[in-house]
Structure prediction request, 313 residues.
Amino acid sequence: MRLLIAEDDRALAMFLTRGMEADGHRVRCAVDGAGAVNAFLEEMPDLTILDLNLPVMDGEQALREMRAIDPQLPVLVLTGRQEVETRIRCLDLGADDLMVKPFSLHELRARCRALLRRKREAKLTLKVGDLELDRLDHTAKRAGEPITLTNKEFALMEHLMLHRGQCVSRVELLDAVWNMEPAQTTNIVDVYVNYLRRKLKDPPPGFLLRTVRGQGYLVPSETEMHLPVPLLIAQHTRELISEHVAGQAIGQTSGLGASVPDGTALLPVAFLEAQGTANQQVPMVAMVEADDGRLAPHSRPVHREGSIPEPGS
Prediction:
């Protein structure tokens, strides 16, 4: 689950963040009221923990603006104010729960779980094929058998399942799961994808977790679950390179001499050579990865059996 913590006391914010991350949640922090409202608008978090004594914008005003953005997303207020009137006012403004400082972290986590259970529209259970993730209990099962996942493995699979049917880039996964800058050079995403595939018994090219070469990973949608892997990857490859070929026919860009008609599958050369396309009923155009990492059409067409003809053939 995605949580937003609005707390200007950095030590307390870190304490809360660690406690919530221990439950498997992804946490974003804001240190003032205006920043909290902006983060709320950007993230639309599953739960917000809001302190009242915030700089720039008071917590009560931040609560008003959050409720104007979305009246349903749960908000739990933390306050050191002892007046009953303050608590009543916050509840009337739309707070779902309120705790007075000092508080027990165990109780706070229990209250958060209760609020998340009540959130009707929340996707508390994610399912793809025979794989099931319980976002509240932080458990995973495949074909009814429990699978032990670390917090990062769970967060990675959760993010991919929440974006089911979309190709999610490594840059986005680094930011969403590891809070890492995309400029940092690392293969941690690929390493954890391999961990997941081993635990899910889903070896490449994968039924549940699939690779889109040079772009990222995807969990196929319900309709895509029934597509052969080569055609699914071709479909997403076509979407992802549309920018590259915008305004010109793919055939002209690739030197094929004619436009490639709709329905043509665009596949990486290495993938075609490894998989073969003998059983596919669509024309194929090979794709190669350029020096900058982007996909581009190969200069020669691919034969039906998936091989790339030599010059002059």
